[in-house]
Design a protein that fits this description.
The complex is a heterodimer of chains A (350) and B (449).
Chain A (H helix, E strand, L loop, with lengths): L1 E3 L1 H14 L1 E8 L2 E7 L17 H4 L3 E10 L2 E6 L6 E6 L1 H14 L7 H8 L1 E6 L25 E6 L2 E6 L2 H7 L51 H5 L8 H5 L6 E7 L12 E7 L20 H20 L12 H5 L6 H9 L1
Parallel strand pairs in A: 2-6, 6-7, 7-8
Antiparallel strand pairs in A: 1-9, 2-3, 4-5, 4-11, 8-9, 10-11
Chain B lengths: L6 E6 L3 H10 L8 E6 L7 H9 L4 E6 L10 H18 L7 E5 L5 H18 L33 H17 L4 E7 L5 E6 L20 H4 L15 E5 L1 H12 L8 E6 L13 H4 L11 E3 L12 H11 L2 H12 L7 H5 L24 H15 L8 H5 L7 H15 L24
Parallel strand pairs in B: 1-2, 1-3, 3-4, 5-7, 7-8, 8-9
Antiparallel strand pairs in B: 5-6
Helix pairs in contact in B: 1-4, 2-12, 3-14, 9-14, 12-14
The chains are: A alpha/beta (350), B alpha/beta (449).
Chain lengths: 350, 449
Amino acid sequence: MNLITQAQLAEWLDGLARQRTLIAPHEVAGVLLYRPVESSQKIAWGFGRTVMSVKEAFFPPTERLLTIEKSDGGIKLIENLPEGEQVLFGVRPCDARGVRILDALFLDKEPVDPYYARRRANTALVGLACKEMGPTCFCTSVGGAPDEASDMDVMLYEVEGGYAVETVTEKGKALLQTINLEEQTVEKPIVNRQSPALSVAEGSIENQKSPIPNPQFISWPAHFTSEYWPRVSERCLSCRACTYVCPTCRCFIIRDEVLPYTSGEPAAGAFERIRCWDSCEGENYRRIAGGHRQRAEKSERLRNRFFCKFYYYPEQYGLGAASACTGCGRCVDICPVNVDITEVLTDLAR
Amino acid sequence: MAFEPRIIAYLCTWCSYTGADTAGIARLKSPANIRDIRVPCSGRVSPELVMRTFDQGADGVLILGCHIGECHYETGNHRAAKRLPILRALMGYAGLEPERLRLDWVSASEGERFSRIATEFVDTVRALGPVRWRVPGDEIPALTQQFAAICGDVPLGEYDCAAKTDAIRAKAKELLTSGAVGYVVGYEVGPRGRTRPSFANTPEEADKLVWNPDCTYNLTTYLGKKRRPAVKGIEQPKPVAVVVKPCDSRAINVLLTENQFPREQVYIIGVTCEGTRHDHGALQVRCQTCNDRVPIVYDTLIGEPPAPVPEHPTPVALKIAELEKETPAERMEFWLSQFDRCIRCYACRQACPMCNCPVCLYERDDSLWIGMGVNMNEKRAFHLGRAYHMAGRCIGCNECERACPMNIPISLLNMKMAQEIEAAFGHRAGMEPVPSPVVTILSGEYKEG
C-alpha cells in the first residue's frame, strides 16, 4: 500500500472540497457529527465515534420528495431529486457496513428509491480504520471488523508518518487521481479485534465473554412471546434516540404539508411531500385508520427493534447469516436509561 | 415602498371586537395593518396560537380583552393576563423583540381607546422593522455560536451509600412481602456498571436495588404514564412504591395536583440527597446550589439531612443573565444554533415526568401546530412550546437535558421560565401541592404591569 502523509491528506481533501461537498467529522458544541466542511481544518482529527451515523448523508432526517403546485386548473408535480456530488471522509467500517444494509432495501430490490440511489451514486466513501475498538463497540461480534475495507471506496489506515492507502473501487481510484503518492510500500497495521472487557458488576460473569453472543437466526421466532420483553422494556422511555442514531434503522413516514408563506406573499396553494425518519419506539408507531396501533405496548415496540435487526430484515432482504446490526454501539451509549443491545443479546443467548 | 407591518389582532367578541366597531362607527382612524380575528375570549388565545402566528410570519400580535373584572366568563381574561407576560418573556428570550406582542384591555364602548392602542402598536412595530422570526426553508442561518450544555466541574464529596442502599432494600422487601405494593421503582447497576432505573416485582428482586451518586434518573416519570386516576367500576391496580430524591418529590407534588394519580396509589420512599454526578464524575450543576436536600413529600424517609451548601449563582443562572443582556438578534442566533442540532428524537419529552399528555401537542398528526419535518422552525416551535408548558411545572430535575443526545442546553429555557414564574407569582413548582399559576385560573393574583 502507498503512504499518504497528514499534510498530503489535508491537501487532497481541500482539493476535493473545492469540487464537491466534503462531509467529515466535525465537533459542534461537544457533539461529534458528520457535517459539510469547507476545508480540512474544520475536521475533528483524531475523532472517535460520531453521535449520528453516515446514514444522514444518504437518507436525511427530512427531505422534500415533491413540490405540488396548482397551475391553470391542474396540478403540477415537481420532483426534487438531490443534486451534487459528495465525499464522505472518516467513515468507520461499521457505518460503511450500515450503508450496505440500507442498499438492500433502497437499491437492491425493486422498486429502487430514486432519492437514495441518486445520493448513493454521487457519494464516495473514504474510510478510516479504527485503531482499536471502543468500550461499547461490538462489530466483531456481528461479522464486521474495525479495519474492514470492503464497503469503502478508499480506505485509510493510520500508520507511522501518515496513513496507508488502499484503493477499493474504481470510484476510489478516480478520487485518488488528483494526488501523486510516493511509491512506498507500507504494511497494513494490525488492529486488536477484541472489544474491551465490559466493566462488570459483581455476579455477572456472562458479560465478560467477548465477543457478544449473537443468537442464531432460526432461534429468534421462539423469543417472540417471551416474558423477557415486558421486563427489559420496563425502563424504556419510548424516545427515538436509539433508532435515530442507528446506522441501519430506516423506517420513514411520508406526509404532504402546506408550504409556508414566502417573501410576504402566500404561496398559492403549494404543498410539499416530505419524507421523515420514523421510529418503531415512538408511542404513535404505526397508528392506522381508526386509531389502531399494532405495537401499542412499549415492550412490543422494543421487541420490534431487536427482531427487525436480527430476524425480519435479514429474512426479507436475504442478508443470509448477517444481521442488520453493525455493532457500532451507538444505541448503547445514547439510551437515556441504559437499555443495552449487548445485554439483550446476551440474555437471549442464555 | 415603506415597510408596512402585518399585524394579527385577536379580539374578544364581547368587548374589543365591538370596541373596534365602535371606533369605526365614530369614524375614528385605525391603521389598516391590523387583521382582526374574533375569538370568544382573550383567555382563548393560547400561547401556542401566538407562537404559531409568529411562526407564520406575523410582524406583531395584538391581543385585546375585556377589562379585568368584566370578563363574560368571569376569569377568562385572568388567564390571558397571567399567560401572555410569561410567553412574552419566553419569546423575547428566544430572540423576538418583546414589543411585537402586546396584551391590553378595550371595552365595547371604548372606540377611542381601540383606535389609540392600535395606532400605537402599529407605530411601534413599524419602527422595529420587518420581523426576523421565521427561518426561511431555503436559507440556512449562520450558526456560529457553539455552546455545550454546562456540565460543571465541582467534585462530589464522598458519602456513605451503603446504609441507604440497605434501607431501600429492606423497605422494598417489606412492601413487596406484605403485598402493600405491586412493584418498587428504584435504581440498579447494570452489567456495564451503569446505574439505571429498575423495577423490583418480588421480594428477591429487591436485592438488586441500590443507592449511589449516579441515581440521577427522575423515577416519577414512570408513574404518570402508568397510573391513571380512579375510574368508577374499574378495579385499581396495586399501589406502586417509588424511590425519590428531594427534587423528584417535588415532581410528585405537581403530578398529584394535576390528578395524574391518587395519592394512595403511590408509596413514596424518600431519600435525602447529597447531589448526583454527571457522566464524567463531577457534581451536576443543578445540585451545586441545591438546598432542598430532604424530600418534601414521602411515606418513608431514608438518610440524614445533609449539611446545607452556601448560596451562589449557578452557571446556568449566570448564562441566563448573560443572554438577557444580549440583543434580540444575538439571542436568536444563540438559540437557533442550539436548536439546529435537534433531531426530534423526543428523548427530552419522554424523560420528563411533567410531559404526560397522552399525545404530544407537537406530534398529533391531526393538527397542524407544527410540521413533521426536522427543520429549524419546527424544532424551535417544539422546544419553545415545551418550555412554555413547563412554566411553573418544571421542578428542575434536568433529565431532559441529560437525555438529549445533542447537548441542547434545555435547562437555560426551563430555568428562565422558573425565574419568570417565581418573580411574577412567587411560585416554585412542587414545593407545595399547588398547580402552576399559568395553567389554572384560581390561584395567583394578577399584577398590574
